[in-house]
Specification:
Blueprint lengths: L1 H30 L5 H26 L3 H12 L9 H14 L1 E7 L5 E6 L12 H4 L1 E4 L5 E8 L9 H48 L12 H49 L5 H29 L8 E4 H18 L3 E5 L9 E4 L1 H18 L5 E9 L3 E8 L25 H4 L4 H11 L3 E6 L5 E8 L2
Parallel strand pairs: 6-8
Antiparallel strand pairs: 1-2, 1-4, 3-4, 5-7, 8-9, 9-11, 10-11
Amino acid sequence: MRGNQIRGQLTRSYLLVIVVTVAIILLLFQLIPFTPGDRLAARLALAYGQQLAPLIQDHLNDNPNREETRKLLQAAVSQPEPSPNERQALILQRTILAALQIERVMLLSADGEVLAEGIVTDVDPAGLPADWEDRAIQLETADGASNFLLVQTGLDLSQAGALQPAFWRFTAGAGLFAALIGAGLSWYLVQQITTPLTQLRNAAVKMTEEGKAEPLEVEGENELADLARAFNRMTTTIEQQQTQRRQFVADIAHELRTPLTIMQVNLEGLQDGMQSVDSAGRVISQEIQALTRLIDDLRLLSLADVEALTLNQTLLEVKPWLLELLSGWQVKAAQKEIDLRILGLEKPTDSWKIWGDPERLQQVLSNLMENALQHTPSDGTIEIEVDQRGDQELVISVTDTGPGIPAEMIDRVFERFFRLDRSRSRQTGGSGLGLAIVQRLVTAHGGRVTAANQPAGGARFSVVLPSR
């Protein structure tokens, strides 16, 4: 399986990094030169002498007295008790002397004569080593004489070479132990990475085969957690779309079945001689018109969904445009004994202009008016209000005195085929596409539409459009 392939690749990658790292460390240790013990002791003594050389040379230039020089050299090998004023420096000196086991510091002439020396009290003086010139540090005095400073240590590192095999065994063991620990950590890290990926893969397979999947458990704030959250959002969206699609198909079937059933009944009545040609033809024509409107509305929504809706936009003057539409709406309102009012046009409206498609915007307001007329009882009131919001927006509101919208349904009124009362027929509740079309057309014009309830009762729909 691909999940196991990823786990294997990650595991091999981690192990390869560990093995290469340990091998490089062991190789570097192998390349480090191992200094023999006696040479190492001589180097340590020489290093200490190089620290003393400037002090001794300055002393010889200022005071070449041998007794004073001896005292200075003796101080270089002594370990005095620290005084309060010099505690830190003397503690450091005593530590260095103890570690290097400095036994003798000598000032030699060019021919090897001991001019002055400092020596540890319990150490027997020994002769000069044969290679003393290689171990001594040359000092140049002010009178041009050449003296040499020689430091001898009692540090015995002659057996240090015997530790080399043990050192390599320890290094190899430590490397193996580190590799084992690294392998364990690698396995743990691989599990941390691949387990969520495996769960994600299984959920994706289930979504593909069954059309649904359980939400993934999300822990942490890393990239894998973000991926799981994105997958959960995707599955939720897909399930919602599937639900909407099923509902859409059911609504379409219902909307088509009703007019087709009516036409079938009238055709059967016509065949049986129970209905006249004029009566059946009139009913069938009405239902065909209803089907045509339904198909046109669905086509408009589909074009809006893919942003392929064509708008023939022009600059509209708001006041004359609304007054022209108002005459047709007043007739319909009067037939239902509803008081239709238009507010806001008494303000200075000469500058109220919008850039839009007159036919589509008329469809927006007509759908809102049809919705208000359907839900407003006789002797009720519908108000159309126009207002300028700042310099950039024009607001057209349609308010009715109907029953209003249940609070839990306000967010759904712009959904396709949504009706407040699912039992309402097309004659009393419309197809349920009117408000969905309003939202798509207003959005296509760069505006927005909102729905709200009035405190005194009734619903208010507000269309906000960019003004010019």
